[in-house]
């Protein structure tokens, strides 16, 4: 009974929050263009066709996934180079910090003007946001390898490739997936930021268009879909880790 209650606790809390939200909107007669009730949001979501939602959903999901996969393809190899070369680490690491410290909202219009108004600038913006956590977490994992294992590998004349693939990367897997879980949610944020700057479809564009016409229930409906997308991608990465590297998943304490 206690275990079932623990598992149902998040759902119960969510239902309670939505219930209080609905009650507050009705009791205080809050206008829907300021804060719509959950029932008004659900009604607005049902008014739009599934095909309409699918177009905006897929536009955001496509850019998020491409930017995320690109950040993996570039971030992990770069992290390996930075972990193995102190000179390159001292050279490139400050540049990465500068890029990450620059507000993406400030440079997004510049990227759009430079690269055009198609998917390329949106992918680049998504990549910039998702790239840094993957690099940092991978470098941290690679450098956390016990030094005695590295010395043992070198004493057995194991090459650099074997040191990376058989010693450092396995130790880095938990750190890498921690970075991936953060990066995949940031990728959705990057796609939305790009859509707010220049787009004709996508959930970010839909929210901007809805708020400009004071259709707040529609905007909140799109926001909830974005939250669901982020959660689904987060748990998809966690599931991938469980399936491919079950030994790297932290064990949950028994109640």
Walk me through this protein's architecture:
The protein has a single domain (40-243), classed as MetI-like (MetI-like fold). The chain contains 10 helices and no strands. The protein has 255 residues and is mainly alpha-helical. 82% of the residues lie in helices and 0% in strands. The protein has helices spanning 2-27, 38-47, 50-84, 86-101, 104-115, 119-143, 147-155, 160-197, 203-212, 216-244. The model has no long low-confidence stretch (mean pLDDT 89). The protein is globular, with a radius of gyration of 22 Å.
In a nutshell, what does this entry contain?
This protein is an all-alpha fold and 255 residues long. It contains 10 helices and no strands.
Q: Total number of helical segments?
A: 10
What is the CATH homologous superfamily assignment?
MetI-like
Through-space gap between termini = 12 Å
Shape: globular
Query: What summary fits the major beta sheet?
Result: none
The appropriate CATH architecture is Orthogonal Bundle
The level of helicity is: over 70%
Q: Would you list the SSEs in sequence order as H and E?
A: HHHHHHHHHH
Tally of strands: 0
Gyration radius (Cα, Å) is: 22 Å
Mean pLDDT: 89
Give the key terms.
single chain; 255 residues; mainly alpha; MetI-like fold; 10 helices; 82% helix; 0% strand; globular
Please describe the topology of this protein:
Layout: H1 2-27, H2 38-47, H3 50-84, H4 86-101, H5 104-115, H6 119-143, H7 147-155, H8 160-197, H9 203-212, H10 216-244
Helix pairs in contact: 2-10, 3-4, 3-6, 3-8, 3-9, 5-6, 5-8, 6-8, 7-8, 8-9, 8-10, 9-10
């Amino acid at each position: 009974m206690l275990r079932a209650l623990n598992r149902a606790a998040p759902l119960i809390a969510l239902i309670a929050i939505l219930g209080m939200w609905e009650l507050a909107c009705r009791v205080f007669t809050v206008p829907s263009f300021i804060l719509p009730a959950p029932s008004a949001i659900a009604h607005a979501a049902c008014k739009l066709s599934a095909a309409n939602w699918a177009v905006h959903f897929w536009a955001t999901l496509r850019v998020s996934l491409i930017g995320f996969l690109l950040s993996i393809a570039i971030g992990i190899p770069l992290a390996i180079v930075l972990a193995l070369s102190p000179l390159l680490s001292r050279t490139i690491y400050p540049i990465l910090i500068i890029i990450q410290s620059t507000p993406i909202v400030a440079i997004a219009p510049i990227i759009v003007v430079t690269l055009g108004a198609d998917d390329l600038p949106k992918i680049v913006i998504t990549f910039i946001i998702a790239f840094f956590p993957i690099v940092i977490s991978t470098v941290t994992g690679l450098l956390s390898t016990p030094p005695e294992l590295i010395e043992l590998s070198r004493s057995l004349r194991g090459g650099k490739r074997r040191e990376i693939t058989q010693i450092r990367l396995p130790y880095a897997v938990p750190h890498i997936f921690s970075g991936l879980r953060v990066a995949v949610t940031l990728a959705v944020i990057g796609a939305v930021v790009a859509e707010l700057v220049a787009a004709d479809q996508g959930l970010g564009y839909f929210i901007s268009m809805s708020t400009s016409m004071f259709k707040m229930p529609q905007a909140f409906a799109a926001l909830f879909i974005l939250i669901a997308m982020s959660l689904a991608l987060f748990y998809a990465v966690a599931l991938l880790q469980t399936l491919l590297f079950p030994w790297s998943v932290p064990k949950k304490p028994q109640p």
